[in-house]
Amino acid sequence: MILTDYTLQIVSLGSALLGIISGVLGSFAVIRKESLLGDAVSHSALPGIALAFLMTQSKRTEILLLGALISGLLSTFIILSIVKYSRIKFDSALALILSVFFGGGIVLLTYIQKIPNANQAGLENFIFGQASTLLKRDIQIMGILGVVLITLIVIFWKEFKIVSFDSDFAESLGFSTKKITTLLFIMIVTAIIIGLQTVGVILMSAMLTAPAVAARQWTDKLSVMVVLSALFGAVSGVIGTILSSLVSKLPTGPMIVIVISIIVIFSLCFAPNRGLIWKYFRNRKKERTINEDQVLVNLYRLAMNHEDLNHSHNISIIKPDKSMTVKSAKELTKKLESLGSRGLAKKDYFNKWAITEKGLEYVENYFKKEEL
């Protein structure tokens, strides 16, 4: 049975760990509107991998990832320095460093491929990822780093939360926003480096941001968002791994990204508060309410201009329109019936309509709000 396959279990566990780690750290990147940092750091890690191999002639995962970590931290430091000491904006600095570091990494990989040494085979897998090469040792490294990162999140939860939402307020409370931000950046870079072997430098930015973006649609509370983001990341990792194992030569990393992208699209459409579908129906309902209020105001003005406030009026008088068709008359009747169900209007035996006392009070309160 496919689920009892040892390799599949190892890769699924590694992908799930990656989803949890990137989901938790990615939540803070999304909240801070620094999601593109993941793209820059992941691409900037490539020259670090190449240099680590050139210096050690070893393909051990921990050595290559250490090189990637140093390169990623260096690129982050350069980006922040450019923004701080020049007039270049954050996005421009990201694009500049991303292209320079990634281009340098490609040059180094090309040079390595021409070295008369068979040991360099497989380094190019870090570009698109090669989850099937994950070993038990790699999972243990991911697990240890994941525990460390999540423990730091728990310990510094209050600090990370305040700095992410309002750094000025955090500064006024006495927090060292620079140190907290630096620690958070290091943790985000570490989370990115962890996933390079699984999904590669090109797709890692999606793993960092997509689970958090999906989770953001379902809640306004950061703690719930972090938990949902980790859950979405883990689920996409496991499902993507299983789907890739069912089809021959289907890469695991891109499949994981496709699954999390589907989760994002579903969340964007169907999340109760922010979903586009529900938002569409809420807007339609709001439009109907506004139209009904306009009809009610017409009834109110007719009542104010008549000696008897309870006097009923014909549809053509309620909304005088020389071009009124049968269809528009039916729509107006539906709005009046809706007002009647709300107790704001009433119909007599001659199918004429009048405003109720509740309707009078509703409109008067509406005008008071408009004056305010």
Explain how this protein is built.
β1 (345-347) and β2 form a beta hairpin. The chain has two domains: 2-204, ABC transporter involved in vitamin B12 uptake, BtuC; 278-371, Winged helix-like DNA-binding domain superfamily/Winged helix DNA-binding domain (Arc Repressor Mutant, subunit A). It has a two-stranded antiparallel sheet. The mean pLDDT is 82. The chain has 16 helices and two strands. It has 372 residues and is mainly α.
**CATH architectural type of the largest domain:** Orthogonal Bundle
CA radius of gyration is 30 Å
CATH homologous superfamily identity of the largest domain: ABC transporter involved in vitamin B12 uptake, BtuC
Report the mean per-residue pLDDT as an integer: 82
The shape, in one word, is: elongated
| Tally of helical segments | 16
Q: What is the compact description of this entry?
A:
The chain has 372 residues and is mostly helical. It has 16 helices and 2 strands.
Which features does this protein show?
Arc Repressor Mutant, subunit A, 372 residues, ABC transporter involved in vitamin B12 uptake, BtuC, 76% helix, ABC_BtuC-like, elongated, mainly alpha, two-stranded antiparallel ribbon
Set out the fold topology.
Blueprint lengths: L5 H26 L4 H21 L4 H25 L4 H24 L11 H4 L7 H20 L1 H9 L1 H6 L4 H18 L1 H21 L5 H25 L5 H19 L5 H29 L10 H4 L7 H16 L3 E3 L5 E3 L1 H15 L1
Antiparallel strand pairs: 1-2
Helix pairs in contact: 1-6, 1-9, 1-10, 1-11, 2-3, 2-4, 2-9, 2-10, 3-4, 3-9, 6-9, 7-9, 9-10, 10-11, 10-12, 11-12, 13-15
